[in-house]
Amino acid sequence: MGRIASASANDAQTTRAIAAIEAYLNQLLNQNVTPNITVHLVRNRVETLETIALTRDNLSSLLDLLQKTPYDGATRLDALKPSDNSDLVILVTDGLATYGLTKLAVAGKALVYTLNDGLAVAADTEVLLVFGERL
Question: What is the pLDDT, as a whole number, of residue 127?
Answer without folding.
Answer: 66
